[in-house]
Amino acid sequence: MLYHYCSSKSFQSIFSRKKLRLSSLLLSNDYNEGNVVSALIDTLLSPENILDKDKKEISNLLNFFRNYFHGIGFCLSEEGDLLSQWRGYADNGYGLSIGFSKSELDNLCKNYRTDGQRDLRLKQINYESSKHFPIVSPVIDSLKKICSDPIHNTTPLSGLLALASSMGIENEDIKRDEKRRSALMLSLLPLSDELYTLKNSAFSEEKEWRLISHIEGDEFHGINFYAKQEKLIPYDEIGIDEQLNTIIREIIVGPKHDTPIDVIRDLLISKGLKNIEVKKSKASYR
Are 96 and 255 within 8 A, CB to CB? Predict the structure, then answer.
């Protein structure tokens, strides 16, 4: 099973509305979200004999991908009763943890789309640097080849030539520059799927999985916003009405949560759910 930690309000919403909310990952509590790939590429390219302007362009393209493929996700953990998760994601222990069947989540991704008609993927988060390198290395090789290939090299006068082009004067250097940029973009494109699956090792205790989708460019159909302190956070949803009896298997009541277990069971039964185990957290946290 995979567990989603949430406040009592979010818990009630999931069972009353029968929807899972995929919220913006760029506005999560990890300010470095989506940047691990960029930092890794920068590190791997630094010792190489690549011009600074090429490194800057690669960095700009990665930043473009990070913003163009705006990640939204529903976050889960392999651990259902972890103190750090109660503190960080379940209202400081006053919330609950919902245990989802991983196989049913896989089935959800294969057969359903979000309200905004977006595809879903269930992805395990990768925290280990040693496992990050094999993912990025093929792209690094491709980038080095493009940057060192004479056919893609640009003239020192490219800025002046760009001005000439804007005045209607065509030249081969401008065409070559556009071809080179396109080649770099195509090489980086496979990493757009990994922007929100590689994380800093400091978060490894979370053992996180995510239901992930993307808002592409200005494709904001089906997107709503909710307010959280100083942020307006975009989100999309996916209905689980048909799967409710099979997708949720367990409820763990937070260490500070006061609702009696029998009352939570009655709530579930009122929704037609009779086979969900309900138990109290073992964390002695107050």
Answer: no
